[in-house]
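Continuing the batch. This is chain 6 of the set; chains 1 through 5 are on the previous pages. Same settings as before, nothing changed between runs. Recording input and output for traceability.
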Amino acid sequence: MEETEHRLSRTQIILGKEGIARLAKSRVAIFGLGGVGGYVLEALARSGIGNFDLIDSDKFCISNFNRQILATSQTLGEFKADAARERVLSINPCANVNAHKVFFLPENSSQFDFKNYDYVVDAVDTVSAKIQIIMQAQAAGTKVISSMGTGNKIDPSLLKISDIYKTSVCPLARVMRHELKKRGVKNLKVVYSTETPLAHIEPAHDEDGRPLVASTAFVPSVAGLLIASEIVRDLLKKT
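Output for chain 6:
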């Protein structure tokens, strides 16, 4: 094998050795390892990020198979954080990966020192957790990017990166704008969709009678890839 052939040889062509080295030293925390977070992780691992903290308390279930890259017959029933760690190490055995099987909430947020991270990804569903992640990251001076709603949508071409206060259409973004403005947050980088959520053709409900959110393979995945691209480009900016 030629000397130039290695795991990141094709990425190095456009990022250079210095860029690859910078990514290898970077540490990224991903909160939520589902449809969006799983693809963020996949792309970052394949881009050479060397250090990860992976936070998710859930286990994989059969309904995850339609959109979550880490959900397979082999990982069914496993903790997402554990499966995600194994996925990263199967791509890059030299990576340093900390798996946290924790449902992140304001009550346990002190377990995480956001000053240790170069970048934080908010890919969770709970509004209170999203707000805590964002507030804690900004208080630590750590870059953070947040995923808005990807459910009930089928057109990934309508996803974009923007500031939270420039978003429209997305119901979750509307709630987040309101809550963050109350807390004095001036800006926040997000990925969101301008697609109007679709009506359900065949509505379904959970065991408590609440309507289930529809999902597809291509909207959460593209959101995750957009986030990963933004992170890599931010980390490579000269400081």
